[in-house]
Amino acid sequence: MRLVVVAVGRVKDRPLRAAIDEYLGRVRRYVACDEIEIPDGPPAKVGPLLARASAGASVIAMEVNGKALGSEAFAAGVERWGSRGKGVVALLIGGADGLPPDVSAAADDRWSLSPLTFPHRLARLVLVEQLYRAMTLLRGEPYAH
């Protein structure tokens, strides 16, 4: 399995960037995991960049109105999508305006991190932490308990 976090916008805040990098490093102990940052802009510009970055992967759009999953269901979903096709799972996070509608519609699944609306930078941290938690759950390790 290979995970790809594709996010619109850059994380410039150093402490937040450090926390994201910490969790990405933890995830990489279990599976290959890449992070791709897409420049923010109008949907007509962002959409094709998101599609190119996630080409060939099972695509999960992270959206406030997506499926609400607990940590165990999130882990099972990552494992399920990772066992399909080439084993690549791309998780997409939109910018200030969310994901372009055509990108959302083309996604294989739509999940929510919370019914709350997060700034995209914070959503990225929550997502990578949940990916790490998923890896520990899938292996029965104590972090998730």
UniProtKB/TrEMBL annotation:
SUPFAM superfamilies: alpha/beta knot (SSF75217). S-adenosyl-L-methionine binds at residues 94, 113-118. GO terms for molecular function: rRNA (pseudouridine-N3-)-methyltransferase activity. It is found in: Cytoplasm. It comes from the Bacteria. Its EC number is 2.1.1.177. CDD domains: RlmH-like. It is an enzyme of class 2 (transferase). InterPro entries: Alpha/beta_knot_MTases, RlmH-like, tRNA_m1G_MTases_N. Transmembrane segments: none annotated. It catalyses: pseudouridine(1915) in 23S rRNA + S-adenosyl-L-methionine = N(3)-methylpseudouridine(1915) in 23S rRNA + S-adenosyl-L-homocysteine + H(+). Keywords: Cytoplasm, Methyltransferase, rRNA processing, S-adenosyl-L-methionine, Transferase. GO terms for cellular component: cytoplasm. Belongs to the RNA methyltransferase RlmH family. Specifically methylates the pseudouridine at position 1915 (m3Psi1915) in 23S rRNA. Homodimer. This is Ribosomal RNA large subunit methyltransferase H. The lineage of its organism: Bacteria, Pseudomonadati, Myxococcota, Polyangia, Polyangiales. The gene is rlmH.
